[in-house]
Amino acid sequence: MGLSDYLFVCLIGALPGPLSITFDNANFQLLPINKNKCRHIDPVRDISFQLFTRHNPLMPSTLRIGDDEALAQSHFNFSEPTIFFFHAFFESSQAVPATYIRTGNSEKSDEE
């Protein structure tokens, strides 16, 4: 593998997700990426949190590591219980498992 090939793999690996196509509620990866060749993870670029609350149940507030202003402007309440749903490339906050968790949690909160 030459230097240009290595740089291309790292460039593709720096994208927010793998090259893929969605068909019939399934996501198919078009190009496998060997992350062992380019292990650097940038927390600011690669990690984000989408906050859903009863004040914004459909449209999340995006929170990023080190962005205190976004946290202060969100509906995050430190006195309320927090649930984290982790996923990687193949899912999103709009995927069926995430919506079930989000809906179930908001309904449970309304009952209390």
Observed structural traits:
AB_hydrolase_fold; 2 domains; 112 residues; single chain; 4 helices; two-stranded antiparallel ribbon; alpha+beta; 33% helix
Summed up, what is this model?
With 112 residues, the chain is of the alpha+beta class. 33% of the residues lie in helices and 21% in strands. Strand 3 and strand 4 (56-64) form a beta hairpin.
Question: SSE layout and pairings?
Answer:
Blueprint (H helix, E strand, L loop, with lengths): L2 H11 L6 E4 L2 E4 L13 H4 L1 E6 L2 E9 L3 H6 L22 H16 L1
Antiparallel strand pairs: 1-2, 3-4
Task: Describe the 3D structure.
- With 112 residues, the chain is an alpha+beta fold.
- It has 2 domains: 1-40, no CATH class; 42-112, no CATH class.
- It is built from 4 helices and 4 strands, in the order H-E-E-H-E-E-H-H.
- The protein has helices at 3-13, 43-46, 68-73, 96-111; strands at 20-23, 26-29, 48-53, 56-64.
- The strands form 2 sheets. The chain has a two-stranded antiparallel ribbon. Strands 3-4 form a two-stranded antiparallel ribbon.
- Strand 1 and strand 2 (26-29) form a beta hairpin.
- The mean pLDDT is 75.
- InterPro entries: AB_hydrolase_fold.
